[in-house]
């Protein structure tokens, strides 16, 4: 594929293949050539996105053309997103490929090192530094080719002599001078240290020090080393069962003084690297085998992820997300539909909850137990004791947890499929679900003997109080009381205490038209600016 | 293996001459383009070693001096720029290195390269200015041009040339990298040399304001954001006093900035705010500006009370918003002027 890709018409977007702070990556197909491409969608409206860093980044990747570096095909702006089209590398990253286990064949490591060194030599000759070299950023395709990728933090230097004085990178792969910000800061030699860490990682499965130190401690350990020898001892290089040429290669990377550390061109002549050039067919086969091994491993471990497919977002949706409006609007719609439901039916729904449902089964039963109007507090207590007896046993406890897991997953998928979440929201929701499950732990009370064995589950208590608080009826039942609005937004109509009250005084309810905006900012904004825009476009046209 | 038998150029002069020969052949075209390209690439790599040294050797000043002299006297830079498209992708980047190293070279206070570009071969600069017209070599030209702009005489040369105004076109190129690269050049052209720029903006107020206002009204999100950002940077410069006075007295400008505040994009609202605040904070406001501000007083108050910027974690920004809000509240009410 030689032509540039400059518009959405040129490509077809398929499933999601990755996510990061910057946005989402999809696999795509280039229509003309039928080739696979990777589509990186960068959300330019995201608070953390620096538009100017992004454009700089694009300049850098567009200047790299080498088989060992993922190729850039073009990019374009669509609404608030920048779509960057890159070569699709279908075998995964070395980080992924290492999951079934470390690479035992040194020859394979040697080939990978050679290919990455060619890429580094190319970059360094142009005054570019990768700055975040690690196994995650080295990709393999199914033809057995090695590709360096992700210049997320690479910097363009105006000449080989200039330096950048900022700390970036990932702890275990960072060189001493980068950590300490000495020797004039970052130069291309920092990549070589990181490359050594990658080689070590390929051989042992983990970067140096990861199994013995937390990231920040590791930084301190690395920075303490005065000589490469000290570092080799720290990582117990001598204790590793590897060839002497491999060991020598690593020792050339792990030189503390960057000036004495080998350059990429010099390492390319190292015998550990040159030794693998003889039988290329074997090399390709061995690299392909890494991918096959991972595939088999995935199947055995059921770790194949479900695929998210791309859903186009229009501008309006993007903007709603921005204002946090989508959730509100959706719920409002939901609520409006509820107005058509007969009030008898609502009461009926309430009654049906009177059966012996347990507190943990569903929010409905919790509401039942905590309804402030409920006089049968005894029954509530009995229910609680009953519940305790059940989850005292671990197995039952686990079943409950599994059930909760199912529920939160279901909720998550519902939200994810019905709304186009942005990256941050998606991540936060994932975190929330994790937190909820982690909070499924027992609280212990020992104040009274009666309840010595009285155990509660943190998250259930939380939900209970949450609903209790939420369902308290506010003093004045006006539709713009914030509590009433929150109730409307969160509670399904069958559970909404205020709604049922309001329903009786139906004059108030009918005033809640569908167009009512609950977000103060939007309301004012729209009325304010509609008039502005009108006035201004008039006066701009006829000055 | 033919190249093994070929005599490698020994001195820098030989090297430049050999390079010029190959470029001439490249210029003529023919079947052997690839061969000439490779030759050029090889010579350019050797030139780079003379200029920057390599793993074993440090660069030698006398060698560089000989090389530079030969480059000027044979118009080598012109040949390279003129044939930039015909060089291979990676060699073009070596041309950037040759330019930037030569530009930095100084004899006393003078840069012989700058002198050569201005008085010897200004055609080179014209080619560079037109760089963004080619999507293939636009980025390379942009880099060289920005190295040149670091010198005030060259910056002046470009600003007084009518071709400068093409940059407002180039920044809207459909090729994203070209557009953003042209923007970086435009930015450097009007921000690097403060005194020169203040003079330029004073003399070209109308043209400049019209051009940048057009960019601000672009439908392209990136163009819009970049141009507002550039404008915000210009109004921050005290040296641009004359420009500022006129800009902040122009109701049309205020209207455009108010439109930005009403834009759906949070980031654009903020970029717009950074200009809007000057309209409000300016001590002597013209009556027409004042009229608009007063007419919209209530709207502004409602807007700024809800101008949610906490997610940007910028305490200065919050202070500024609060200050602007107080200033607006101090404005007379609309009844009083009626």
TrEMBL record, chain A:
The keyword Nucleotide-binding applies. It is an enzyme of class 2 (transferase). It catalyses: L-seryl-[protein] + ATP = O-phospho-L-seryl-[protein] + ADP + H(+); L-threonyl-[protein] + ATP = O-phospho-L-threonyl-[protein] + ADP + H(+). Residues 11-273 form the Protein kinase domain. Pfam families: Pkinase. Its EC number is 2.7.11.1. SMART domains: S_TKc. Residues 343-355 have a biased composition (Polar residues). This is non-specific serine/threonine protein kinase.
From TrEMBL, chain B:
InterPro entries: ARM-like, ARM-type_fold, Mo25. One of its GO terms (biological process) is intracellular signal transduction. Belongs to the Mo25 family. The lineage of its organism: Eukaryota, Fungi, Dikarya, Ascomycota, Saccharomycotina. This is Piso0_000244 protein. It comes from Pichia sorbitophila (strain ATCC MYA-4447 / BCRC 22081 / CBS 7064 / NBRC 10061 / NRRL Y-12695). One of its GO terms (molecular function) is protein serine/threonine kinase activator activity. The gene is Piso0_000244.
């Amino acid at each position: 594929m030689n032509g540039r890709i400059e518009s959405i018409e040129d490509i077809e977007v398929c499933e999601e293949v990755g996510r990061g702070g910057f946005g989402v990556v999809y696999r795509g197909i280039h229509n003309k050539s039928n080739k696979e491409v990777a589509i990186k969608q960068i959300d330019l409206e995201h608070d953390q996105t620096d538009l100017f860093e992004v454009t700089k980044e694009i300049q850098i990747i567009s200047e790299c053309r080498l088989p060992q570096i993922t190729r850039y095909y073009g990019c374009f702006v669509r609404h608030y997103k920048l779509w960057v089209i890159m070569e699709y590398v279908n075998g995964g990253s070395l980080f992924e490929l290492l999951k079934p286990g470390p690479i035992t064949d040194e020859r394979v490591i040697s080939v990978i090192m050679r290919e990455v060194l060619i890429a580094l030599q190319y970059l360094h000759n142009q005054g570019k530094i990768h700055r975040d070299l690690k196994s995650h950023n080295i990709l393999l395709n199914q033809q057995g080719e090695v590709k360096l990728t992700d210049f997320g933090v690479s910097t363009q230097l105006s000449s080989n002599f200039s330096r950048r004085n900022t700390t970036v990178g990932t702890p275990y792969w960072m060189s001493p001078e980068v950590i300490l910000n000495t020797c004039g800061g970052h130069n291309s030699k920092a990549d070589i240290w990181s490359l050594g860490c990658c080689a070590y990682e390929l051989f042992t499965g983990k970067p140096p020090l990861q199994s013995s130190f937390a990231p920040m401690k590791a930084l301190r350990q690395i920075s303490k080393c005065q000589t490469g020898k000290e570092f080799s001892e720290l990582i117990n290089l001598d204790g590793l069962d590897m060839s002497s040429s491999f060991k020598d290669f690593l020792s050339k990377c792990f030189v503390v003084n960057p000036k004495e550390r080998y350059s990429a061109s010099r390492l390319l002549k190292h015998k550990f690297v040159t030794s693998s050039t003889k039988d290329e067919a074997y090399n390709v086969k061995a690299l392909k085998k890494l991918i096959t091994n991972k595939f088999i491993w995935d199947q055995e471990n059921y770790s194949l992820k479900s695929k998210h497919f791309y859903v186009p977002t229009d501008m309006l949706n993007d903007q709603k997300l921005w204002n946090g409006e989508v959730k509100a609007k959706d719920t409002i719609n939901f609520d409006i539909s509820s107005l058509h439901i007969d009030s008898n039916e609502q009461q009926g729904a309430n009654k049906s909850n009177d059966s012996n449902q347990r507190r943990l089964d569903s929010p409905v039963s919790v509401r039942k137990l905590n309804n402030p109007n409920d006089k049968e507090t005894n029954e509530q207590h009995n229910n609680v004791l009953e519940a305790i007896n059940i989850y005292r046993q671990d197995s039952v406890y686990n079943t409950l947890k599994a059930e909760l897991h199912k529920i939160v997953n279901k909720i998550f998928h519902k939200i994810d499929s019905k709304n186009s979440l942005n990256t941050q929201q998606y991540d936060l929701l994932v975190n929330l679900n994790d937190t909820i499950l982690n909070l499924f732990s027992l609280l212990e009370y020992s104040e009274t003997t009666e309840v010595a064995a009285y155990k509660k589950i943190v998250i259930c208590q939380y939900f209970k109080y949450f609903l209790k608080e939420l369902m308290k009826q506010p003093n004045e039942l006006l539709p713009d009381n914030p509590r009433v609005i929150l109730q409307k937004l969160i509670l399904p109509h069958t559970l909404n205490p205020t709604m049922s009250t309001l329903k009786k005084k139906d004059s108030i309810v009918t005033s809640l038209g569908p167009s009512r905006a609950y977000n103060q900012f939007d309301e004012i904004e729209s009325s304010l600016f509609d008039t502005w825009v009108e006035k201004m476009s008039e006066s701009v046209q006829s000055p | 293996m033919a190249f093994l038998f070929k005599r490698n150029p020994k001195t820098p002069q030989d090297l430049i001459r050999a390079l010029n020969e190959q470029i001439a052949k490249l210029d003529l075209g023919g079947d052997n383009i690839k061969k000439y390209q490779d030759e050029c690439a090889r010579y350019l790599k050797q030139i780079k070693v003379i200029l920057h040294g390599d793993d074993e050797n440090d660069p030698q000043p006398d060698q560089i001096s000989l090389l530079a002299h030969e480059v000027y006297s044979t118009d080598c830079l012109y040949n390279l720029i003129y044939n930039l498209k015909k060089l291979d992708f990676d060699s073009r980047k070596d041309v950037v290195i040759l330019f930037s190293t030569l530009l930095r070279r100084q004899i006393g206070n003078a840069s012989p390269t700058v002198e050569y570009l201005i008085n010897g071969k200004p055609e080179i600069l014209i080619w560079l200015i037109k760089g963004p017209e080619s999507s293939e070599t636009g980025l390379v030209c942009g880099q060289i041009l920005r190295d040149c702009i670091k010198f005030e005489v060259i910056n002046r040369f470009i600003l007084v040339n009518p071709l400068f105004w093409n940059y407002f076109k180039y920044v809207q190129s459909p090729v994203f990298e070209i557009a953003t690269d042209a923007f970086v050049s435009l930015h450097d052209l009007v921000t690097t040399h403060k005194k020169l720029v203040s003079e330029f903006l004073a003399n070209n107020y109308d043209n400049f304001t019209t051009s940048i206002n057009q960019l601000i009204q672009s439908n392209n999100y990136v163009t819009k954001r970049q141009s507002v950002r550039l404008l915000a940077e210009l109004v921050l410069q005290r040296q641009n006093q004359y420009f500022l006075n006129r800009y902040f007295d122009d109701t049309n400008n205020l209207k455009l900035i108010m439109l930005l505040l009403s834009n759906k994009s949070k980031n654009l609202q903020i970029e717009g705010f950074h200009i809007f605040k000057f309209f409000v904070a300016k001590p002597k406001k013209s009556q027409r500006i004042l009229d608009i501000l007063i007419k919209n007083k209530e709207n502004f108050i409602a807007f700024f009370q809800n101008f949610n910027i906490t997610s940007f974690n910028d305490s200065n920004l919050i202070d500024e918003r609060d200050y602007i809000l107080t200033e607006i509240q101090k404005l007379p009410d609309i009844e009083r002027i009626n």
